[in-house]
Specification:
Helix content is 73%, strand content 1%. With 456 residues, the chain is mainly alpha-helical.
Length: 456
Amino acid sequence: MATARQRIWGWYFFDWASQPYNTLLLTFIFGPYFAEVARGYYMGTGLDEEAAKAAAQGLWGFWYACFSLIIACLAPVLGAVAQGTGRRLIWVWLFSALYVFGAFSLWYVAPGGELDMLRRGAILFGIGLIGMEFATIFTNALMPSLAEGDDIGRISGSGFAFGYLGGLVALFVMLSLFADNADTGKTLIGIDPIFGFDTEAREGTRFVGPFTAIWFVVFMVPFAVWVREPHGGAGSLHVGRALASLKETLRSLRYRRSLSAYLGSALAYSDALTGIYAFGGVYASNVLGWSITQIGVFGILGGVTAMVASWVGGRLDARFGPKPVIVGCLLVLLVVCVVIVGMDREQLWGLPLDEASSTPDLIFYICGGLIGAAGGPLQAASRTMVLRHTTPDRATEAFGLFALSGKVTSFVAPALITLATAATGSARLGISPIILLFLIGLVLLLWVHPKGEMPA
């Protein structure tokens, strides 16, 4: 029988195992690599470079929006069904299988491919994304069985810190041993990719998919050994009853101002943060002309600040509550986004920059550090705030609603980014909708009670 400390560490290891899907695939390696391959395809069709960059960003945004819509529709339903059966772990393992399949299959996204190959790559990425998101919902729902009261905030922050450390280690290993620079064919430490990977076929960089899948399988072992289903017993599966419970919960939101306002706020700011992660590496590739290696170093910086800030944020959450942490993080992210939207290699909101100098790169590195420092505590405090609005026996359903609030505009925001990119013809200005989403999230927090509320 696992001890309480072992159960907590087993739960931490899910964050460690799953974080590389965000760090390696979504943001810092596969996303920018996909943009490179798509940009090359569109230039091969006769588009000029700027138009090809916008088209590549639009393709990535379209498929990301499609799978975010699927997640938004299914998350609360699955949460209600799992709540009715009293089971979480079986769902964790089911969606973990999708995670592994989707990640491993990205090996087949090779340079020089046609549009069909790019579409298949985006779909496979989306399958793994569904696995990661839903496995996270059911793992988060185990939190009430780990601790009570203010300790939840500390555990949540420490979990994110441990997860970011895992993502950081995985990113460093990928950059040092596998991911090759498109110009030099060398890794971050100046060697050829190991295992004899072909640099012309970008096999070292493409290995990010199988590497992420293998990483997940290996580091889910402590979770499998130490984490058990909470006491209470498993019930039978009644889909109709579960959906009726979900419907009743949704109806009750009109009487629960704090929870409704928080879900609306999370709807806006969670998607804005996801937008930064989904398009940050693509932005660096398209606007600043960064290589995969440079983007990876940017990711290491962001990972370090996220790890440290998540740990600190967990302590602040335990002392002051999650709401002040969320507000502070949103203010930082809002300022960062304003800087990013107004900058390219030649200017920053009209102030001229020397495009040949390192100044634009330095500014973006600083922005990356701040994104990590704010994004980590924001996510940790957010799941603490969810628990302040529910009870342990309804946690899965609550996290399903939270996933809905975090994903329903993930379908809208990439679409807005795609439309803005098409309307302006600029990959830089195309991400401007993120600013509006952060503002909406801040305003709605005015109606959120710091201590939450118990469900009706």
